[in-house]
Specification:
The protein is of the alpha+beta class and 253 residues long. The protein has 5 helices and 12 strands. It comes from Arabidopsis suecica.
Length: 253
């Protein structure tokens, strides 16, 4: 609780402090959010909150190294995605896109038993906000995806954990860029009474980036499905919709 999250969402979030789309109850997870270092007057950028190094010696350096390597992997995946969308492989490497990205990491611990019929989840149904998410998980099952969110009732399927492999989720902004060719992954986590741990690495373009349909993803018969939007505008709204006021925790500490 000494590293409770700040207004930029960096730091520790207790159980039930985050809500997913259209949820009544908070998620049965706790997390530690590590953002990018920066100044207070830049959206999403502030000095990270770190635990006392005497308590966790070497931990900050390990997290910073992981952040650096995960970003490198995401940029390599982005080049493959660019080619799949019929643009140059380095298209997303532009300074206003991934040349100066927003890259965040969330360390997650899930607990308890989920009951979707009562709206109780480890993490409720949602899609990720940004371009893509690189997800490392332990061997405990829990992650489910829905391939078609428009079909009722929704069909959910478990995603197995493969040792040595990452799970890659498409995010909302890539769906907008690709005009729906790549669809943002609707997913949730169900708790089964076991402790479950994962590391989610979220990649977004620069906060000033205007996200709009790529020229190669539109035509006269297939016009843009989404209006152009500034990255920071979209992310700010989605973050505000997913957070619980933690002022009560701060008063108690």
């Amino acid at each position: 609780m000494k590293v409770l999250k700040n207004e930029k969402h960096q730091g520790y979030s207790p159980v039930l402090s985050q809500i997913s789309d259209n949820q009544i109850h908070g998620d049965y997870k706790e997390s530690f959010f590590i953002g990018i270092e920066g100044s207070n007057d830049t959206p999403f950028c502030r000095a990270n909150i770190w635990p006392n190094p005497d308590v966790l010696p070497g931990w900050q350096a390990t997290m910073e190294k992981y952040h650096q390597e995960a970003l490198r992997v995401c940029k390599a995946i982005a080049r493959v995605l660019a080619l799949a969308l019929n643009v140059d492989g380095d298209y997303f490497d532009k300074p206003e896109m991934l040349g100066n990205p927003l890259a965040f990491m969330r360390l997650l611990h899930y607990e308890g038993m989920s009951d979707p019929s009562k709206g109780i989840y480890g993490c409720g149904p949602h899609s990720d906000f940004g371009m893509m998410t690189l997800l490392a998980t332990d061997s405990v099952m829990g992650l489910q995806i829905c391939k078609d969110r428009d079909v009722k009732p929704r069909k959910w399927e478990y995603i197995p954990s493969i040792k040595g492999a990452y799970i890659v989720n498409i995010g909302d902004l890539l769906e907008r860029w690709s005009n729906g060719i790549f669809k943002s992954t609707l997913h949730r986590v169900l708790g089964n009474g076991q402790d479950r741990y994962s590391i989610a690495f979220f990649l977004q373009p620069s906060h000033d980036c205007i996200v709009e349909c790529l020229p190669t993803c539109q035509s006269e018969n297939n016009p843009p499905k989404y209006p152009a939007i500034k990255c920071s505008t979209y992310l700010t709204q989605r973050y505000q919709d997913s957070q619980v006021d933690l002022s009560i925790y701060k008063r108690q500490t």
